[in-house]
Amino acid sequence: MSLFTGWRAALRIARRDAMRAKGRSALVVAMIALPVLGVTAADITYRSIDSTEAEQLTAQMGAADALFSDPGMGPLQQMPDGRGYDIAGDERPEGEVPPIDMRTAFPKGGRAISIQSVPASVTTAYGLTNTEIVEFRTSDPMARGKIDLVEGAYPHGNGEMAATEPFLKSSGLHIGSRTTVDSAGRTYTITGVVEQPDDLKSQQLYADPGAVIAPWQAAADRDRKVLPPNTGSTEWLVKGSGSAGIGWGDVLAANKTGALVVSRQVVLDPPPDSEVPMAQSASYSYGNDSGEASAALVTVVAMALLEIVLLAGPAFAVGARRSRRQLGLVGTCGGDRRHVRAVVLSGGLVLGAIGAVTGVAAGLLLTVAFRPLIEDWAGQRFGSLLLKPTELLVIAALGLVTGLLAAFAPAVVAARQSVLESLTGRRGVRRSSRVLPTVGACVLALGVAIAVFGGTSGSSTLVAGGSVVAELGLLACIPVIVGLLGRLGRRLPLSPRMALRDAARNRGRTAPAVAAVMAAVAGSVAIATYMSSSLAESDQDYRPMLSKGTMVVSSTDAKAAERLPLARASVEQHITVTGGHADFSRVWAGSDCNVYYEDESTCGSIELVKPTGKGHTCPLNTKGAKELAARLSAEEHRQMMRSPACTDEYNSWGSLSSDANNIVVGGPELLRTYAKLDDPAAAAALKAGTPVLLNQAYAKDGEVTLKAVHTYNAKDEKNRKLHPGPARTSTDRMKVYVADAEYAATPGIRMILPQRTAERLGLHTEPSGSVYAVPHPPSDAEEQRVSAAIDQAGGGLWLQTERIPGDRESIILLILTLFAGVVTLGAAAITTGLAKADAEADLTTLSAIGAPPRVRRSLSGFQCLVVALTGVLLGTAAGLVPAVALRLVDLHNAMQQMRKEPMESAFTPIVLPWATIGILAVVVPLLAGLLAAALTRSRLTLARRAG
């Protein structure tokens, strides 16, 4: 028999066997197709969302030929892509360059439309909100690709607007709703929903040029109480005459007038450097980031392929086991071990090919079907559905190879059986190898060592390689681990004892399923651990504007402060708050710099003088800081960064006060509500007129030094009465209550000054706002209701809330947990099915000797539980190796950066995702056992022995 003829016969047998066992074949095809589907969908999504340069230009300038703008520097020179530009010549213009008449820069015969934006407050269904209004003729054909209509109609004229979907969702408005621009006092009708294809999350309103800014400016000119519009710079979309577009010559001509031009034709077909003045006068290179592939991605892909092999392997083992008589007949007809292996491998080839083709086709169809959801998740539209045939063929080939690899071990085992064993159904006795687990243990230790070494040396490539090697070593140890399970059942009831011993006796089917669960859980735990650790690092580095669980209503001036009672009433009516409000006032010396800001030399200042020396000066921001940083560990550096002396270096700006001193006037309520300092001694100190210092680095021997410069503007007659005569400087030493070190990080407050103490020191105060404790951040609707009430009362007040970063990480962790859980259930189900096929004789014997029917159910449940629980525990341990090692890489990089910049954080925690681990280790195994018990028939039909 020739090689070709042998394989042709093997493929024919494999195809017929797949058709006979449709359920098992569908299972294998699904196992191979699902990962192929995922990789195909990810590849198509990545290629489609990674916009080409032509697509990026369309998002930037729509269907126009060029985008013109005025950088405000006069005649200039630029690179062809418009990203690099500078003044033309060596002399920079003196003073402010007047805006250019852009019409002189346009090519002859060109047509242009303008784009200009302005921030504004507009009315909503709930109240008032701040947004951006763009004056842009969206109905013009040149706007296509930059702004597209989703629903309704484009705005036309001065009384219409279009809105983006996120704005409508936030504001509660819809097509046909009317919104009023608060400052301009004009009302507009929303006629359509538009979107910006490269930013689907933008909240904007669009109106025709002249519909908003011009009437707003006219209203400001008529009434000084109306603030003029704070418009942005104007850009122009330009269409060249004819089909020639706008060439490099047109760009150079526009540069002479002071216009910066991004031309579609020039960017896609740039001129040679000899024709680019800027390229000749200065060294300029285009950034081309070609970073190497992420080692974490390589690790995950390797684990995924290994997982498919392990999942499909037991299914092929089932097929080989049930076809052993057929394989024995191959031997009786003259076939040798090669032909038996070929039959089983052909099954992998046939099912692998079907799975690969099905996965690629399903991946493409699902990407098309769920394209809107994917685009919403990514926040941008696909430029086009881009397919790379070469990459799709490689993905399909991986699926095919995976099928062959999954069938390889069952093929070897089937080929080793004698013809007699295959025909009679006896499996024989084969002792477990002692070499494999020994080698596996050594490989496991070697892999962990490589991964840890890679982490400490900063090599993510070594981490990836070491993690894969470690998992392979643990795989080799699984048969021994499974064998030890039998010893745990000596004192257990019948069903769990039989399940443990059955798993130990039949390691050939138990070990691959445990390994498959381990691989799935390892990948999920690795990613979840890394994400949880990174999230903890981000939380540590985050600098909040306000204290946790608080909200602030602030005023802009003295007149607005008079309306604070109305604002408080609105907040307490529309927003859920905890307890009452805590009022605070701002404090200053001399004339108020907020009023006389035009000439800061005619206004006063106050300064909380910081002593020098240990405990007062941050050693990481002084001479010798780099030498100190080189000796610190990451934890020592973190503790030093959190000390009061260093906290003040990066947390010095104010959110409650108008200057960087962070001194406010308040009472005990402010301590409890905002600083979370519920200390009777501190409250008593404030009542007695003693300031409370939250940052102890400013105190020396229980005292602080307050320096005040009493400088008055000639127009400030009211405040000048307190300090008549020439400007003077006062320095006061006063006793303070010093809070513990943990309160030094309180955002926006360094010291709370009692009202009577401020008056005694000759300082000026003015009510500034109120603080509320809130159980959760207010919703958009609640904020808009309060903003509307404030505006109706006269404005000049604003609501400050702390927005917590989004929870996309928790969604990803949930997806990972579900994925690992599904794989665990699938692998446990496969093993339970195989165990049922192998244990028919044992179950028949149990029924014959009078065992209750529920024993069959409970045995299946415990068999499933054993596989799931063992795989989850091993997978958790295996997943921690790459996660910890990759965090060590991050630590190595952070330490290097910290030693260059000592004030940079080196905190790199390792946080375990206990919720994910708990679900996988407890919930999923129990669910697997219960499902297996529920789906198993309790009664067994006794079969009569033949002969």
Characteristics:
alpha+beta; single chain; globular; 23 strands
Secondary structure: elements and pairs:
Layout: H1 3-20, H2 22-49, H3 53-61, E1 66-69, E2 76-78, E3 85-87, E4 111-123, E5 128-136, E6 148-152, E7 160-164, H4 165-171, E8 178-181, E9 186-195, E10 204-207, H5 213-222, E11 235-239, H6 248-257, E12 260-263, H7 264-268, H8 277-281, H9 295-322, H10 324-332, H11 337-369, H12 371-378, H13 389-416, H14 419-424, H15 435-457, H16 460-485, H17 494-505, H18 507-541, E13 550-555, H19 558-561, H20 564-574, E14 578-588, E15 605-609, H21 625-631, H22 634-641, H23 644-650, E16 663-666, H24 668-673, H25 680-687, E17 692-693, E18 703-710, H26 717-720, E19 728-735, E20 737-738, E21 751-753, H27 755-760, E22 764-773, H28 780-793, E23 797-801, H29 808-838, H30 840-848, H31 854-900, H32 914-934
Parallel strand pairs: 5-10, 7-9, 16-21, 17-20
Antiparallel strand pairs: 1-11, 1-12, 2-3, 4-5, 4-11, 6-9, 7-10, 8-9, 13-22, 13-23, 14-16, 14-22, 15-18, 17-21, 18-19
Describe the structure.
The structure is a single chain. The protein is α+β, with helices and mostly antiparallel strands. It contains 32 helices and 23 strands. The strands form four sheets. Strands 1, 4, 5, 6, 7, 8, 9, 10, 11 and 12 form a ten-stranded mixed sheet that branches. The protein has an eight-stranded mixed sheet with strand order 20-17-21-16-14-22-13-23. Strands 15-18-19 form a three-stranded antiparallel sheet, with no helix packed on it. Helix 2 (22-49) packs antiparallel against helix 13, helix 17 (494-505) crosses helix 31 (854-900) and helix 29 packs antiparallel against helix 31. It is globular. Residues 283-296 have low confidence and may be disordered.
